[in-house]
Design goal:
The chain is mostly helical. 67% of the residues lie in helices and 7% in strands. Strands 1-3-2 form a 3-stranded antiparallel β-sheet. Helix 2 packs across helix 3. It is elongated and about 60 Å long.
Length: 136
Amino acid sequence: MARRKGNNPTDRELEILRILWTYGSCSVRRVNEFVCQESDTGYTTTLKFMQIMLEKGLVTRDTSQRTHIYSAAAEEANVQKALAADLVDKAFGGSAQKLVMQALQEKQVPQNELIRIQRMLDELEGEENDVTSRNS
């Protein structure tokens, strides 16, 4: 049974994507070396995950050489955006405010991050005011 393209990655698939985003194109063996630093995972398990990811459109595979090389097909920002939207819908009933409040309450947020968050909010508020004034 073929998997639909566009599915959000599982935790293991996300781990593999992070490796590809960080280190660029890699063979299955190289990816497996990184995966094994976190958990004892066999080569064939990593290979199977990457084959599934290929079916889902999360990675591409270069077969021009004996050793197949995999690359991330999905951009990091796009995957993060899809996962965040899914989390907001599933866990917070569609409320971005609840997500942000929960995230800020869960751990000590460094001052520099709070400043960046405030700037982003200010920019969004400015954009909203621009749209409102244009529609008036």
